[in-house]
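Hey, does this match?
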Amino acid sequence: MGIINTHALTAVRRVVPGCVAVLLGLVLLVGSHRFAHAGMPVTTKLMDPHMEITLRRLALPGDRQRADAIVADARRLVAKYADVADAERDGFAKFLPNLKLPQEHFTNDAYAHEAWSGTFDSNHPTSLIYNRTASGLHIVGVMYTASNLATEADLDGKVPMSVGTWHRHVNLCWAPKGTPILPAYFGAHPMFGFNGSIWTRDACDAEGGIFSPIEFGWMIHVWPNEPSQEAIWSIHGEDERHDMVGEHEHHGGMLAVASAGPLPIPLDHLPAAPVRSGDGARGASVFAQNCASCHGAAGRDGPDAPALASRGLSPGQVAFMVRNPHAIDVTSEMPQLPISDQDLADVAAYVSQL
């Protein structure tokens, strides 16, 4: 079942993470950073320095039906386990039982084993998620998990990635043994852990910490009683714009906000969609009519959108962004343009030549 990163596990047991939606109890799903990347061609981007997330994929027939079935099962589980005592009778146990957290995970070890082995059962969530309120614990969602060894096809087979976003914790620095916990992890400017300002191996080594490039397995949350699809499948159970922007602000500008750079993700992480050969000259007209008002003339110095010129975009990558503007940046205000496949091919050819 893999090597356990015991130092990191000890640190996690001693430290309450700032993101209360973190699964703290998945000891069985902690993949050693020694082998975490092996055989894992999963396309991701950083949501903040300590969390990477999967990109939205092109929607395929049946994706929405599969996602809706998972939500229906999650909704039944939320109703079934409204009383924590019922969850405990069925094998869910609170992690860190001696600490009171604003949001609690009740984890089922048998279901964790099942998830680690590669099985996905929407009626067997690894954890139930409860918010702590004045009247007690109130169930708000469920969490499903997968091994760090899962491939992108594995993850998509469990939960359609055109709908849900898998995430995991990365670039963590654990404080040296004997470091006072509160200032190190929860001070005004914490250096270590999930909220830490340290997110590179060199910086961690300089402080005598232990660096972990990947911690825990893949996780995906479902908040079945939220009012919108975006909220149901959000990472933190809140508005997805907060997920993408608020966390950046919390980390004090360590990363650029997705929409502020030339592209929201590195070029080599941007998927390409199938697209026919296009006429770049005709595409210039399509671009001027549909795209220049935001991206600027010839794709330069756009007032409200990333520059596209001189980015090295392939026609397929342009086509992917046009058809799926929210797949790579959920905060994007770009609409899905109602253009024909030929217009798409032409504008993709034009932009790729800029």
Summary: Residues 6-255 form one domain. Residues 120 and 333 are 34 Å apart (CA to CA). The chain has two domains: 6-255, 267-352. Residues 1-40, 239-261 have pLDDT under 50 and may be disordered.
